[in-house]
Amino acid sequence: MIKYDWGMRVRATVDLFNDGSHPGHEPDALLVKAGDPGEIVQIGQHVESDTPVYIVEFGEKTVIGCFEEEIEPV
Known about the structure:
five-stranded antiparallel beta sheet
């Protein structure tokens, strides 16, 4: 069950670092700071854990997959 919807304005609840899925950034580089605003642009599913993954656009160039505990509504 998903907790948030597409188009919802959210903010990061924690600092988000590059886990290797952003090749334009150094590994472990800070991508988004806790409190930074964003918008959910897509919702997917983590296959192994069967958990929703929210694709959040933080600014024009930063799009990150987030788990529910990493974001909250604005």
